[in-house]
Amino acid sequence: MKRKVAIYARVSTEHEEQLSALDNQIQYYDGILKQHPDWILYDRYIDEGITGTSTNKRKNFMRMMEDAREGKFDLIVTREVSRFARNTVRKYGIKW
64 to each of 25, 29, 61, 69, how far by Cα in Å? Predict the structure, then answer.
């Protein structure tokens, strides 16, 4: 069964080592997508240099959540829950 998936990646600073971490996240997602040929990439939502403590400041996270509410994709893939934020699970009612 084909599934439309969204990718979410975030780094909290724009320092060189953090941008390398972002590249690592993207490579991780590319590997996951290759393992699931039935997944179709809908979009990559990437926030760079933005803290995870507040979702309101993360433009691409907010866009992703709006797209999710509109049913534009079936699944969000993220490497770690911390990429979302600790308080996001409660705020958005995300179920794991």
Answer: 17, 16, 5, 9
